Amino acid sequence: MKVIGVDIGGTKTAIGIIDDNNGKVYEKFIIPSKIFTDDKKSLHLIISNILTLSNKNKIKHIGIGVPELINNKGIIKGNYNFNWNNKNLVNYFPKNYKVNVDSDVRCHLRAEKYFGVAKNYKNFAYINIGTGLSYAHFKDKKIYSGAKGYAIHFASSKISLYDWKKNKKISLIPEEYYSGKDLIKIHAIKNKNKKNKILHNVAESLASLIGLLINTIDPDKIVLGGGVIINNIYFKKILIEKIRNFILADEVKKINIKTSKLKNNTGLLGAGLLFK
What we know:
The protein is built from 8 helices and 12 strands. By secondary structure, it is of the alpha/beta class.
């Protein structure tokens, strides 16, 4: 079936026609987030472009991935990237349309399960390292979304640690230090030795968070995706090397860690799969 997939991201929104049987993208265009003047206008611009493509091709099945918390009723609960809290995007479309909305990272996982490296995986976690940090978990033949739908974050809330032996305390939100936005700033550092040292330390810190996640949910496989993984081969290599250092069980240290091969179409394909 041909559907319209919409991947709303922190830096851009991709809209395209997807065949959810074979993953073929027939038409695709990008709206850069920098042209958005405010969140209300950005939403109307996105909806307008979706409806234009829909009317042109007579397609009324629309899947939308949003970079926010989405509860199990499809309502946005958060304003990390856009001030759309408590909005249900389904209400912005005519009633004869079929519209499904989910968190973007769960859309990414769907794409990997149907068309990517996770086709044959029964229990795996997809970890997105891009504008933000998030994950989704597939097990028992379905995506685990949590009791309310918020099981996507592992690095977005404040972590507070106290070393009572040295009387030192550290408190930070990991996502504000180790996401794609931070990698851009680090790569801009001109001193190569300083830059490489920071990259290794950031990779180790991020690896410790991923290791903690693996220790907690115990998946069979891991798939890494997002702009940082796609565009930074050097960082990806050192990150994967360091993740295993933070896994406790010896047999789990051998866990298969793959990287996405779907490149920039992962979210678009996953949104199109919301009717599967």
